[in-house]
Write a structure and sequence with these properties.
The protein is an alpha+beta fold. It has one domain (2-180): 2-Layer Sandwich (Beta Polymerase, domain 2), CATH 3.30.460.10. The protein contains eight helices and nine strands. The longest helix is centred in the N-terminal third of the chain and has 22 residues, at 2-23. The protein is globular.
């Protein structure tokens, strides 16, 4: 298991270096992979964030550029239905999402490349990542950076969720994180989310 983590870390650095060179932009690896590596677990996928370059024609060239580069395979644009299901906020400043597989250092890793419309990736990670334990980032120039929210979660053994930018609470996402980290408590606001949901469900069942 530790050997796979080492391969994933090397692959993540290769992905950042490669994309930064291809797109001439700052590229941020963020979220679950860095979180899982912090806990010495293998990650599931790479999520990288890039601010949109208005002079680049993504619709014409992005998939061709990726699939024509060594290490990238089967990249395509995420369709609107899947995007709406995974990124529940209609106000999220996402321009486009490309998904495929990145292969390097003996691992083949599902990868999402998220192009952000106007916001800097670091600000997006701080403001739009709903779980405190996912607020970590890395670039080709920096080792993983764990935000204050992330570190506070570790210190207090508490998962904090904030869906204020999303417009609605994603209970499936909360359940998924809690299943992965059963030893963590949730913050008081999240507990109130579940109380309200339970009361609403009970009302409709008894009506």
């Amino acid at each position: 298991m530790p050997e796979i983590i080492g391969f994933q870390k090397k692959a993540g650095k290769s992905l950042l270096k490669s994309l930064s060179s291809l797109l001439k932009a700052d590229v941020y690896l963020a979220g679950g992979m860095l979180r899982d590596h912090y806990f010495q677990r293998t990650g599931n996928d790479f999520d990288v964030y890039i601010k949109r370059n208005n002079s680049f024609e993504y619709e014409t060239w992005m998939t061709l550029l990726l699939n024509g580069t060594h290490g990238y395979r089967d990249f395509k644009v995420m369709d609107d239905a899947e995007r709406s299901a995974k990124y529940v906020s209609p106000n999220a400043p996402i321009y486009q999402i490309y998904e495929g597989t990145f292969s390097a250092h003996n691992v083949n890793t599902p990868t999402q490349i998220i192009i952000l419309n106007t916001v800097n990736p670091r600000k997006y990670i701080e403001d739009y990542f709903s779980c405190s334990l996912s607020k970590a980032w890395q670039t080709q120039d920096y080792d993983p950076v764990f935000t204050t929210a992330f570190i506070d979660s570790i210190k207090t053994n508490t998962l904090t969720f904030d869906f204020s930018t999303m417009g609605k609470v994603n209970f499936n996402y909360i359940d998924k994180v809690l299943e992965r980290f059963p030893d963590f408590e949730v913050d008081e606001e999240t507990k109130r989310y579940y109380v309200a949901k339970f009361q609403k469900d009970a009302y409709w069942k008894n009506d």
